[in-house]
Amino acid sequence: MVEVEGEVIPRKRWGAWLGPVGQSIGPILLGLVAGGILLLLTGRNPLAFYGDILKRGLFSSSGVQDSITRMAPLLLMAAGLIVAFRANIWNIGGDGQFLLAAAIVSGFGPGLVAVLPAGLGLVVLCLLAALVGALWTIIPALLKAVYGMNEVITSLMMTFVGVNLANLLIKGPFRSQKTSVPQTDVIPHDKLLPYLPGTRIHVGILFALVAVGAVYYVMTRTSFGLRLSVLGANPRAAVHVGIDVRRLTVVAFMISGAFIGLAAGVEILGVWGYVRADWNPNFGLTLFALVFLARLNALATIPLVGFYAIISMGGHYAARRAGLPDDFMLMVVGLILLFMTLTEYVAARRERRATRLVAGPKAALRPGGAHE
Amino acid sequence: MSNLLTSTFLAALISGGILAGMPLLLAGLGEMVSERAGVLNIGLEGMMLMGGYAGFVVALYSHSHWLGLFGGLLAGLVASTVMVIFCVRLGLDQIVVGIALLVTAEGITSVLQRAQFGTTYPRLDSMAALKIPVLSGIPALGESLFNQPLVVYVGLALVAVAHWVLRSTSMGLHLRAAGEKPQALDAAGVSVTATRSVALLVTGSLGGLGGAYMSIVGAGIFVPFMTHGAGFIGIVIAMLSRGRAVWVLIGAFLFGMSVSLSTALQLVGVNVPQDVVNMLPFVAVLVALVIFAREAYLPAALGSPYVRGSR
Amino acid sequence: MVEMTRPVAGRSGATRDLSAPVVEIRGICKAFPGVVANDDVSLAVFGGEVHCLLGENGAGKSTLMNILSGMYQPDAGSIMVDGQEVRIGSPRDALDLGIGTVYQHTTLIPVFTVLENLLLGQGRGLSMDQKGALAGLKKVAADLGVDVDPHVQAGRLALGQQQQVEIIKALWGGSRVLILDEPTSMLTPQGIVELERVLLQLKERGLAIIFITHKLHEALDVGDRVTVLRQGRVVGTLEPDTVHATPRPELQERIVGMMFGEEAAALAGVAEVRGQVTGRRARREISPEAVLELRGVSVEPQRGEVGIHDVSLIVRRGEILGVAGVDGNGQRELAEAIAGQRAIHRGDILLGGTSIRHASISARQRQGLRYVTDDRLGEGTVSSLSVAVNLVLKRIGDGPFWRRGLVREDAINECALGLVEGFDIKTPSVQTRCGTLSGGNIQKLLLARELSFEPKIVVYNKPTHGLDVKTTHVVRDRIRELAEKEYVSALLISTDLEELLDLCDRIAVLFRGRLTGVVENRVGAEWEVGRLMVGGESR
User: Fold this and answer.
1) C163 to chain B nearest CA, in Å?
2) Residue among C503, C449, B282, C246 nearest A240 (CA)
3) Chains that touch A (3 or more CB pairs under 8 A)
4) CATH architecture of structural domain C301-368+455-539
5) pTM above the 0.80 mark?
6) Cα separation of C494 and C323, whole Å?
7) I want to staple C100 with a disulfide (CB 3.0 to 4.6 A). Which of B166, B212, C153, C170 is the partner?
8) Option in B169, B181, B190 nearest C121 (CB)
């Protein structure tokens, strides 16, 4: 028992070092190192690879602007995931909601911006995107709310259907007559979301930052946010205290889908102006990892999403130069997520040990308490 | 539409159903085992991809389909040890770890495939079929049902084995107890950790085997992301089977047939877009879930890690 | 498999030397985060004897039992079995040493048959000896004089029978030591008599029995040797000679002194300290005005429950109506149906004469219908949120704590400070995470939440379950005062008959989800209630 006394001090120092920030950076570094080892194994130079990422994603003017542009849809999706995850709703079907919204915005976009005044057209399209995203969550939401069915499975099923349905639309009713590759008509460049003055970053990033801030505010300051947190932390308590759990589940699920749909709208209206068939940036599961790294704190997603935007923009370039698929970054994200669960575990253990009392005569005065 | 019930159509539907249903059967059986033991293995799809890639590579270089299938099984087993360590031993969140595993497996198989083969997709010979005499002579159905690679019959035998183990052996009893009330199993002196670990290893092996079947027997090539949700359909089949092996069999072939429906339809001159075909099994799953929502039975302790002494 | 058919008394059977302890523990220490549960505990357990471990909730009894059964590892100290030092690293080790345990919370798997439950842990791998197990079950059951159908699902058995199966399970491999953790908490008075008979049988076979309880009279009824634990430490052991020779009142005095130390004098008037009911309430006039009325209410059972069927009752203004019954006879279903947490599929519920059948949970709450749940951690509180937020958890979005959906922390904190003081909740601050409070303080928090903002009728579900004597006393006083001085009615659901006799005006009895009768709380009511608890007809 004596040695415990001595051990307390280094433990505390570790604890301070391994604060929330360390707990996010640690897994990221471990994931990058593991990715580097795989690069070595496939005969690539990891330093050159990661150097390429930084060069393209961060250390060039156009690269930084691309990365910031990329942050817009990612932040909106993160906001959507946080709303759901806070309520312990596993909306894993983000990709389906995203692609379907993207297809519909691109399909109706060229026609709508042609007939509506510029600003109004964009607003209508964004609302349409949010609506499509929200509607695509209804089946999993209802199955969960009414029957308690696991939404991981149902929202994934909806994703597979959504992705294929999006392709079907792009190849069918929305198909452009002007191209040989199946894609939608292109919204004219001057009708897209405007750039911030002096940059090539579209204003969507502002929407995204506002959305993230709003989610943070709602989660911490409003009764709606508290209801979501209660539902997420203890669903039975939510029932007990009189929260309408069914309604809240459906509402939270739909808000989540709406943000994800909006993300698609902003990406299409800010960057592309059209969708090509079989396009799938696979944002959903990647963001899953980032949002967890941020511990479901909306503001904390901003630096993490920034980081991911850099490695995904730079990674595309680096992977092409190294003759590897973009999916390399997917693997790194998966590894980061794995390492994150591990660092969480280590941190939780440390905390538990640190508060553990020493048994023995010295402790005789302490009450028996809860742990009989 | 009158020729929908012709023998060509039926034969195509059934043999296609078997081809597409086998991986679902293997994955579903595996998932059922781990669900019964209380672990929701969301990473199943990742294990299938690992098995599919490793199995394909082994088969390609060893020129043996069987070694390939075994390699796939081993790869699935290795992938599932991650889940064993993270979820069973350390008690970490099964959904987060499962998704991490899936994403990692998707990335790693895609990277390895490109690193090894560039943009070419080498093809394996098709696996020799085992023709069962007499039975395969049955008009229309015989050829599709009883003229299949040996591994198909192995898969069918596994259904019987799983049924017997779960029902009539101590191991099966312990597995079910680990899913219903792990503290009861612990109090009876059986390690919950060990029981759940074994279950997950079985899941990983069967998932890996299912993936290897897809690449080696089904397609003959490996393409990144080729499982295309089969692992998740396997999970749904396991959930709807209410823990019974026979229902996994029935479910797998029903979904398998929905996959092969388009090929069969094309044979009789009805053309369906590929995207509709890809969508069909998932729509079928959703319809099944909506209709049978009340029926899906899950063990009481599914998804919750067991820590001795906490209630 | 030979193990199974071995006689109950186990390896060395009756030939064992009864003067040497079967199990001896020395200097056991065990700490949990924030609490020392066992502090230098030593005791010896002998064959052919019932050794009672007596102590309040939180005294460390269950921790000690969990150490002996291999669930916990001690931080220090040693355990000797038959004079040999042993390490009990897992429940398997304990079973191999012949230590069988009947846990307070059942370890039977409800969807398994009795036989399957008994087969758990018996075979390995692919083997399963059903025939041998059947024969073994028959033999053990006959030895104990009990009758169990091996093929019925365990969840369908009555709780008394489930406990018998648990005992059979604990004795299965040939036990030498049987540990029973609060075994009477689920039993009727009649069931307790049955249990005592079984214990006598086992004692005669030379088994060492450890009987854990917090009830003094129970310890005196069954114990040959009594060890008193207090705040994790042994405060004394009464040897069999003393226990059997000392007159009971004197023995009680001594044990009360040991259990409560210097507080004993302060608690002198508390009935439950004496192990007898003395504080029966005086009769008083109750107004005929019905506050709550149930008319033929039925609730569909969920998994593992009995549901409730055609329950009708009336609670009048200022009345305390008790609901007695063995746990699991529909108490929770009844409470949740009234609170609105469960849909009723037949019948009607009236609050102050108006139907609330379709009213939401929060509407009922606002109309003054309150529910103090028995599941304090599972649904009563959110452990990751602060004490202050938990205190207003049923008023999320309401003024003055929220205005147009925006939180007003000052209002919440002010209210919380008042409640913490008024209900004597011991917490470092109102911002402390609720999960760090002790069970007693969490219960006070629940009371504070439910009894504030003008309650009309409060449904209490096992309000003192698991609390120490002092808090129990406080809670009961609060219930009584509220009813007598402020005319707040109470529906008091309890499995503790003494509590009901102490507090209630009338006592209704639930059996298998049906109301078998309502008894006026007069002298002798306990016998009538006891009879109704096992399904007897109302007279």
Assistant:
1) 14
2) C449
3) B, C
4) 3-Layer(aba) Sandwich (3.40)
5) yes
6) 6
7) C170
8) B190
